[in-house]
Amino acid sequence: MTAAVTADAVGDGRGGRRHRTVPGWLLGLAGLAGLMALAEVVPRAGLVKKRFLPPFSDMLSALADEAGTGAFWRALLETLRGWAIGLAVATAAGVVLGIAIGGLPLVRAAMSSTIEFLRPIPSVALIPLAVLLYGTTMRSTLLLVVYASFWQVLVQVLYGVRDVDPVARETARSYRFRPLTQVRTVLWPTALPYVMTGFRLAAAVALILEITGELVIGSPGLGKQIAVAQGSNAVASMYALVIVVGLIGVVVNVIVRAVERRVLRWHPSVRREVVS
Amino acid sequence: MNRIRAALAAASVLLLAAACGGGGGSSDASDKGPATVKVSVIPIVDVAPVYLGAQQGFFAEQKLKLQFETAQGGAAIVPAVVSGQVDFGFSNYTSLVLARSKGLPLKVVAPGNASTGADKKDFGGVVVKSGSPIRTAKDLVGKRVAVNTLNNINDTTVRASIRKAGGDAKNVKFTELAFPDMLAALDKGNVDAVQVVEPFLTTALKNGGRLVASNYVDTAPNLTIAAYFTSQKTAASKPDLVKRFAAAMQKSLQYADQNPDAVRKILGTYTKIDPSVASALTLPKFPARVDQAGLQTLENLAVQDGLIKKAPDVKDLLP
Questions:
Q1: Cα gap A14→A159, rounded to integer Å
Q2: How far apart, in whole angstroms, are the C-alpha atoms of residue B67 and residue B64?
């Protein structure tokens, strides 16, 4: 009985491995496991003092403690909500303005220097302004998130609009397509891959700024919890929350990539990926 | 498995509740009467009375409902109060004097916390490594001392401490470091001494640090460190609200001062201080009355150390 079960389990294991030589996710997990082992060994070996970098197992138990509190889940929700709202606003504004500006050569020429001036301003530099406008509420962090991720989308959309095949555009014009129809049938399919790239970049940037805002301003969310843990000398909890933020980053990336694949499933770049 | 499922269920309920609720989530939803006041505080030991008072219903007695908007530093609190984003804020006296001298319209409504007045038994002090040659405040001359904010209450009071010990206070190299970073910097030898407050003081002493001076005690007897304040606009336009807040605050401070165990317990609700540290740390005193002499002392120090050229009138700042 026992032997059969073990054999089965072993067989399963082999079966899983036989599909592909070494699946990518397995390598990824191995890398992660290595990092965890390192984080466990380094403090235990005394290379770093435990009170400054606790072993990984301590972080995990602190994480379990955190997960048992309502404050943690509320903070998680606040962070995700701020991120989602910020990303949605930035994407919508970036797409609409990008098409409007990119579609009108005159406007684009007039705006390009302004965009190049505003875009490199680090969002973090706007923190004093955000606090003056909205205090230490979620809105001041939202301002940072929208500002930072908006440019990612806008610039990509501008490139996308510029990439439209001139023959297709002229053809649409010759057939007297209405402007909105031109946008829908000619401009949008060309710009969509760019929009998705902008969206993916913006999703990551939005998360960074969401956490930064919470951490520095003190608006509600995981970033604030990190700051509270830091101020309470709860070192293990602080690292536990940092781990959670990292995990959110991974999940966000996976989801956004899935969305990208789904939206662009007709696009050659994605189709090729599926075939291989 | 069951526990995980329960945690997930609890989590989803909380998510829903938070999503629907938006802000607040205080316990007293029964009464329609109370006015909501926004209070901006830093989540540290010093503000325990306001949390305790809210828990004990002292603010509800005054028909006030507190909404906490925690900030990470005083730098975010003052503008929020001046612009009217929040009604009341918490800040140390030196910051208030500096802000007032720059013409910001602030008004103190209630005291915040004070030094215990007992040397080497205060909630803040200057700590050195165990093997350090620094023995007294006088030995800090020529050394690197970390404070959380330059040109503020902590470097001026450390200088006062050095002066009291007979040293040349001008000849100290102050470095700005956040409290959470100080012990690591001290350990690595990046600085020779750090001015820390609880819970870092208890942690430092537990890990072999040595307390060389109680800078607040050396500055003035029972020095008041911080206060709750509002803008002059709010003070003038809502005098009744300010009066009720001050009354509730006074009761909270008194209660906190008389019930240290309740204070230690409430710390667990808004900080992540380890319970073993929370039960061991030195609590500040919570005075019920604004200490004008202490404020005057801090103001004189600010002028003496060149933080400001001319001292604003203390009476202008006080209620």
A1: 48
A2: 10
Q: DSSP for A53-113? A: S--HHHHHHHHHHHHTSHHHHHHHHHHHHHHHHHHHHHHHHHHHHHHHHHH-HHHHHHHHH
The two structure tokens encoding residue B11:
């989590």
pLDDT for A247-273, tens place per residue?
999 999 999 989 888 888 888 776 665
Tokens of A215: 């951490």
DSSP for B119-150, please give it. Answer: TT-SSEEEEE-TT-S--SGGGGTTSEEEESST
What is the C-alpha to C-alpha distance for residues A151 and A202, in angstroms, rounded to an integer?
8
Q: Which helix (H) or strand (E) holds B68?
A: strand B64-68
Q: Evaluate the CA torsion angle A70, A72, A75, A76 in order and state its sign.
A: negative
Residue B160 near residue B219, CB atoms below 8 Å: yes
Q: What is the mean pLDDT of residues B249-277?
A: 90
Give the dihedral sign, CA B83/B85/B87/B92.
negative
Whether B179 and chain A come into contact, CB under 8 Å, resolves to yes
> Residues of chain B with pLDDT > 70: what percent?
89
Radius of gyration of chain A (CA): 24
Tokens of A86: 């910020």
The ipTM, to two decimals, is 0.74
Is the minimum CB–CB distance between A52 and chain B shorter than 8 Å?
yes
Measured in angstroms, the CA of B13 and the nearest CA of chain A are apart by: 10
Residue of A nearest to B81 (CA): A135
Retrieve residue A249's tokens.
């980053």
CA dihedral B270, B279, B197, B271 (to 10 degrees): -10
B70–A73: do the CB atoms touch at under 8 Å? no
What pTM value is reported for the model? Answer: 0.78
In this structure, how many other beta carbons lie within 10 angstroms of the beta carbon of residue B18?
20
Looking at the complex, does the CB of residue A58 fall below 8 Å from at least one CB of chain B? no
CB atoms within 10 A of CB B124: 26
Q: Min CA distance, A47 vs chain B (Å)? A: 13
CA distances from A228 to A26, B92, B268 (A): 36, 19, 11
Q: What are phi and psi of B311, to 5 degrees?
A: -75, 135
Q: Which residues of B touch A49 (CB under 8 A)?
A: 187
pLDDT at B3: 47
